[in-house]
Design brief:
Layout: E1 7-14, E2 18-20, H1 28-40, E3 48-53, E4 56-61, H2 63-72, E5 76-82
Helix pairs in contact: 1-2
C-alpha cells in the first residue's frame, strides 16, 4: 500500500522556529557536505519538509541541512509544510 503525503503549503520559515526530528542521527560528514553546498548558495528547489506539530515546526526531512543552516547563521529557509505526524 502506497502512503500519500499531503502538501499543505510552501513558505519561508525562520530557522530559529524549526525543531529537528530527534530520532534522526546527525552525521557530521553529511553536515559538512551540505553546509559546503549551502555556502555556495541555498537551493530553493530543495526545501526542508516540516510538519506543524502542535504549533511547532518539526523538520521531517532536512535535519542535516538544518544543522548546516544554523552553523552558517542563516535566518530563514524555504519549507514545504505537509500534513502528518
Amino acid at each position: 500500500m502506497q502512503r500519500r503525503i499531503n502538501i499543505v503549503e510552501y513558505k519561508t520559515i525562520k530557522v530559529s522556529d524549526l525543531v529537528p526530528f530527534e530520532r534522526r542521527d546527525i552525521r557530521p560528514a553529511i553536515v559538512d557536505k551540505v553546509q559546503s553546498r549551502i555556502e555556495l548558495g541555498y537551493n530553493p528547489a530543495r526545501p526542508l519538509t516540516v510538519i506543524d506539530k502542535d504549533g511547532t515546526w518539526l523538520v521531517a526531512d532536512g535535519n542535516h541541512r538544518l544543522v548546516g543552516l544554523v552553523n552558517l547563521g542563516i535566518d530563514s529557509v524555504p519549507c514545504v509544510i505537509r500534513e502528518g505526524n
